[in-house]
Amino acid sequence: MMTSLRYLSNLLYKHYEKKVIILIDEYDVPLAKAFDKGYYEQMVTLLRNMFAQALKTNDSMYFSVLTGCLRISKESIFTGLNNRDTFVRKEKKENFYHGMLLGLLSYKDTWGIWSNNESGEGDSDILVEIEDEDIGIVIEVKYSENGNLEADCNKALEQIEEMRYQERFQDMGMRTIIKYGVACYTKRCKVLFLKEE
Question: Which of 115, 164, 119, 120 minimizes the C-alpha distance to 141?
Fold first, then answer.
């Protein structure tokens, strides 16, 4: 079982000659059941090893997405995967944090959210429209390869200004526009913002 996802992805890659996208939904459900039934430690070990085999250095994988809702704080099943970071190009690292932000923002179904949408003189990372409050939000995400989060937040804000990503909201007559520069580095993140009223 520990090697099953890696083995399956290798077979799919070999057959279709395309790298595999691995989607793992509700990984936390077996953990919750294992906790109730008294074999939690064994399940943590199984999942940790399964994910390490499938996700850490799997040459057949293009990318992966994991979803769950339980907080696993005492012992992480993701121990050893964080190194899912040094092997990936900067653009893919930015895409990871970009996607994570989109997921966090999408919980408000009354907000309009656009990703990589044309605005001003380029494609902004994330645009959020809070129509009932007349607020437009522009978010630019950077991966800080050298760990200088503040400098990369400022670069993100400068890019918003230079590319005029806020123009979409200005054209709509939005009363308030908030610009966020977000910089991420492994488990650390910094956010700077500017507000126009």
Answer: 115
Q: Which fold has domain 104-196?
A: Trna Endonuclease; Chain: A, domain 1 (3.40.1350)
The label of the residue with tokens 């199984």 reads 46
Tell me the C-alpha distance between 48 and 193, whole Å.
37
**Backbone torsions φ then ψ of 188, nearest 5 degrees:** -105, 150
Buried/exposed code over 28-58 (b: 16+ C-beta within 10 A; e: otherwise): beebeebeeeeebeebbebbbebbbbbbbeb
Element (H, E) at 184: strand 176-185
Averages of pLDDT over each 10 residues, the chain, 197 residues: 91 94 82 79 83 84 75 48 52 72 76 81 87 91 91 96 92 92 90 90
Please count the other Cβ atoms lying within 10 Å of the Cβ belonging to residue 159.
Answer: 17
What span, in angstroms and rounded, lies between the C-alpha atoms of 49 and 79?
10
* Ramachandran quadrant class, 143 (left: phi over 0; alpha: psi -120 to 50; beta: rest): beta
Alpha helices in the chain (DSSP H): 4-16, 28-37, 40-51, 90-105, 149-163, 167-171
User: What residue ranges do the domains of the chain occupy?
Assistant: 4-66, 104-196
